[in-house]
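Quick start: read one record
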Amino acid sequence: MTKKTISLVLGSGGARGIVHIGIIKWLEEHNYEIQSISGCSMGALVGGFYAAGKLDAYVEWLETIDILDMLKLLDFKGSGGFVSGEKLMQKLHSLVGDAKIEDLNIKFTAVATDIDAQKEVWINNGSLLDAIRASISLPLFFTPFKYQGKRLVDGGVLNPVPIAPTFHDSTELTISVNLGGESIGKSPLQEDKPQNSIQKIINKISIPDSFTEGGMYSVANKSFEAMQSSIAKMKLAAYPSDIELDIPINLCGTFEFNKAKELIEYGYNFCQQSVELKEYHGKSI
């Protein structure tokens, strides 16, 4: 059975990006060979760890953390954002080490945004962690990342589903994952009796109430997600991939990383039910 080579485009969307892991798992199990990855925000993080051969280590850690563990990683001392990101990057370094993008076995590009020049920045060499840190710099939450004299923030500001870096790939298919798809009536990840959300717990431990539901950051974040979803639709209409996987924008909250197991399973099952993927899989047999 010949494997079908693909370029994988992983979009931004906070904790929803954990579905990328389930999608990658499904693709691996169904005879797709990922030769190129382009990603921004969580797409860059998941894609970067996969390209470095460390995704299993990331998943093992991710599935063991709870809300309080996440809060311990947030160093509220940033300038230009609530969180500096230093503690988080130290943890990620313990999982992936000093990997260089040019040494990876899979072509990898992380997409960030130069907020001063108002341009996309493609990072495809140098430190993998620097590329990830630049790409995940969610505005207001993380401080902008200083990189080669530029101030970089989340790549999703300008391009939530960065297909362009894959244009010259020699792979057979390009598969994109858009985390800003149409809302569903009720997310299967919603609980009938909701537990304390990360926003509520942050409030309880006396972090500024800008994070609470209806607070300044919550409103800004919802606005950012609406903007991303609209931009993604326009980009994908102009530059469609061979297969587009649209994940509902209301699948989970931006910071619900404590739902990792459910999100990974959702991504896997989403592929399992994708008619397009099944058709291409059948052709490759």
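The two ends are 6 Å apart (CA to CA).
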